[in-house]
């Protein structure tokens, strides 16, 4: 069983299980629950984690948080199930479309 995860758009998640694709659109990035959506899709098809033998994830570029979440989920599943992610046992690194917007600490 092969799964594909794409959460690079922070208002949309795409899960593909073999040849069936599931898409969830949300109003706000805060509503994007990629892991919950993945669990729902697997449960709908009566698939257990041990049935998964391959994971593919879109590493980006994309939104900072959306990309990071999808890649983290894929890497954790790959590690826990001892299977390849994007064809490798090495963790996938996210590709961001821009640097994170982190405020610098003010000088005091």
TrEMBL record:
Q: Please report the organism this UniProt entry assigns to the protein.
A: Candidatus Collierbacteria bacterium GW2011_GWA2_42_17
- Show the GO MF annotations: peptidase activity
Supply the InterPro entries for this chain. ATPase_NBD, Gcp-like_dom
Q: Where is the Gcp-like domain?
A: 39-85
One GO BP annotation is:
proteolysis
Query: Is the keyword Hydrolase assigned to this protein?
Result: yes
Q: Which UniProt keywords apply?
A: Hydrolase, Protease
Domain of life, per the record? Answer: Bacteria
Name-wise, this protein is Inactive metal-dependent protease-like protein
Q: What is the lineage of its organism?
A: Bacteria, Candidatus Collieribacteriota
A Pfam family recorded for this sequence: TsaD
